[in-house]
Amino acid sequence: MVVDDHPMWRDAVARDLATAGFDVVATAGDGPQAVRRARAAAPDVLVLDLNLPGLPGVAVCKELVGENPALRVLVLSASGEHADVLEAVKSGATGYLVKSASTEELLAAVRSTAAGDPVFTPGLAGLVLGEYRRLAAEPAPAAPAPGSSAPEAPRLTDRETQVLRLVAKGLSYKQIAERLVISHRTVQNHVQNTLGKLQLHNRVELVRYAIERGLDDA
């Protein structure tokens, strides 16, 4: 699904995606329309502009990903401002591409986003990982009161821990699969199992969890 308030741009992106073999299930030109149509069309990937009338793109992303954590969101924005990128990632976006990207870069980004791999315009990936580290350094929630039973930490398999460690280092699922000599699908399955065990919702929360435990330095 493609969301952008400029009709010519929106139509061009939708046309490029359809020509490349993607099934474009819906388009929308403002925030509220995007939320309504996404709920009805249930896309796998949302290509989303940030600057939308009615409801900003980050609010659209937060609302839709909150309802459906499996939704992948690729932000396609004219802005490469660091604050916009970080806000989009915190709202649940899987990737962030600036509109100066080529059609080939867009198509590759949509494919990666659909696979759950984070995609960022060159120069922004390090910024996002740095923000994960900053979030991980923030004080943890207060410990349970004395006498109350703290839930036991979930037990991950050795392979799940290996995958989690590589996710925390910023590797894509494809790179992890090559490093561990397993299939891309197996990596995805390990990540989904880990998310379930840790009661986390997306890769952003997973990376933060791993960094909090120092797994990115292991």
TrEMBL record:
UniProt-listed GO biological process terms: phosphorelay signal transduction system; regulation of DNA-templated transcription
One Gene Ontology term of the molecular function aspect: DNA binding
Keyword DNA-binding: yes
Domain Response regulatory, residue spans: 1-114
Pfam families: GerE, Response_reg
Keywords: DNA-binding, Phosphoprotein
Modified residues (4-aspartylphosphate): D49
Domain of life (superkingdom): Bacteria
Residue span, HTH luxR-type domain: 149-214
SMART domains reported for this sequence: HTH_LUXR (SM00421), REC (SM00448)
Keyword DNA-binding among UniProt keywords: yes
InterPro entries according to UniProt: CheY-like_superfamily (IPR011006), NreC/VraR/RcsB-like_REC (IPR058245), Sig_transdc_resp-reg_C-effctor (IPR016032), Sig_transdc_resp-reg_receiver (IPR001789), Tscrpt_reg_LuxR_C (IPR000792), WalR-like (IPR039420)
PANTHER family according to UniProt: TWO-COMPONENT RESPONSE REGULATOR
Name of the protein: Response regulator transcription factor
